[in-house]
Design goal:
This protein has about 375 residues and is mainly α. The longest helix is centred in the last third of the chain and has 31 residues. The model has no long low-confidence stretch (mean pLDDT about 90). The protein starts with 8 loop residues before the first helix and ends in a 13-residue tail after the last helix. The chain contains 14 helices and four strands. It has a two-stranded parallel sheet.
């Protein structure tokens, strides 16, 4: 029995009618990664559940985050004059990141290979992907850090939001068109990140202090590539696909309000978290950047997961996520100085957000497992007794 019924009966009925529809036009994915994943999946035992592969890949990203948190908690280790992260950590980070990416590509192939594809598998995969954004963004940040040749914590905060909104755009597209257009930036970024970790292990972080050309630093290239990819590829393609569906009368939501409704909660989350950053009496982002990023990324994942449930079940997106109500109170307590220990408040709220999101995830998985009469992490069938 589920801990709490987060998925309504209407949504469960919608999941029964769900059919997976996705378009992947990325040459790297089509000509390189898919053949590689088709090769890898042949080595996996047929008793291995696809969701277990998905979860293992996600945990490699969490492990990377925790590993770099141990060696570089406040993102200063890559700065000149600080004790740098050991080379073996970058090697491990590169391998773990590529393993996570590979397992994320193999899980669906394992599901088709074992004839075990279900809507739960897709929801589980994309739900963990939404949470993975914060783990790989924060881990990559340790390469450049906060030093003179690095990126400020505020700049990284905005970069994180660019990545988060780029992720949710794909599911906003599907909410409106019924088709998941897989973004090009994901495959390119994952391969690039893995290579950069390994290069860092060989050349050291000092290499990134040097300019690429003239006074253009590697940190500028890092920032430029993320922002440029989002605003010149991801956003235009999303708008194009939705407008194309509108012209062909296949758009699922006719009014502009209904079409844009999924953005209400993410925008409000952005406003609340940004207000805390700029009105913080103790400059909380400078004090606790890693914890703050984790809080924002986890809250965003919670919002996104609820959108994914709605688009997969073909139900209306709810305007506001309940998590934003207590967050409004927390931000008010922080910026007004009523709660004087801002760091403690952030830690308590982050723990609450993480626990709430885990509770939500477990509850949804249990509900859908029960509804489809399957086990989430095993291909065995539950007893009919």
């Amino acid at each position: 029995m589920a801990l709490y019924e987060y998925v309504t009966q209407e949504q469960l009925a919608g999941f029964d009618k769900y059919k997976y529809s996705a378009v992947d036009s990325n040459p790297l994915s089509i000509y390189v990664m898919h053949p590689f994943w088709n090769f890898v999946v042949k080595f996996l035992p047929t008793w291995l559940a696809p969701n277990l592969i998905t979860f293992t890949g996600f945990m490699f990203l969490v492990l990377n985050f925790l590993m770099l948190a141990f060696y570089d908690f406040d993102f200063t280790a890559s700065s000149a004059g600080h004790e740098h992260v050991p080379s073996w950590v970058w090697v491990a980070a590169g391998l773990f990141n590529f393993l996570a990416y590979t397992l994320d590509g193999v899980d669906g192939k394992q599901a088709r290979r074992t004839n075990s594809s279900t809507p739960l598998g897709e929801l589980f995969d994309h739900g963990l992907d939404s949470w993975a954004c914060i783990f790989f963004v924060a881990t990559v940040y340790s390469i450049f850090g906060r030093g003179e040749s690095g990126v400020s914590v505020v700049t990284l905060y905005y970069i994180l939001w660019v990545v988060l909104f780029s992720f949710i755009l794909s599911h906003w597209e599907k909410y409106n068109t019924g088709i998941l257009f897989l973004p090009w930036g994901y495959d390119i970024s994952q391969v690039t990140i893995s290579l950069v970790y390994l290069i860092t292990a060989v050349v050291g972080v000092e290499k990134w202090y040097q300019p690429v050309i003239w006074s253009f630093l590697y940190r500028d290239l890092f920032t430029f590539m993320i922002i440029a990819c989002s605003f010149t590829v991801t956003l235009p393609m999303s708008l194009y696909n939705v407008l194309k569906a509108h012209r062909s009368n296949t758009l699922k939501h006719s009014s502009l309000y209904e079409a844009l409704l999924p953005f209400l909660s993410p925008v409000l989350l952005f406003v609340l978290s940004t207000a805390w950053v700029f009105c913080s009496p103790s400059n909380i982002l400078e004090l606790q950047p890693r914890i703050y990023y984790l809080m924002v990324g986890t809250a965003f994942a919670n919002v996104t997961c609820k959108l994914i449930v709605c688009q997969m079940s073909n139900t209306r997106c709810q305007p506001l996520t309940w998590l934003l109500l207590p967050m409004s109170a927390v931000v008010l307590l922080a910026v007004t100085g009523v709660f004087t220990n801002e760091t403690l408040l952030l830690h308590l709220w982050t723990a609450a957000v993480v626990l709430a999101h885990i509770h939500y995830g477990i509850s949804v998985v249990q509900q859908l497992s029960g509804h489809f009469n399957i086990f989430a992490f095993s291909l065995k069938k539950p007893s009919s007794d």
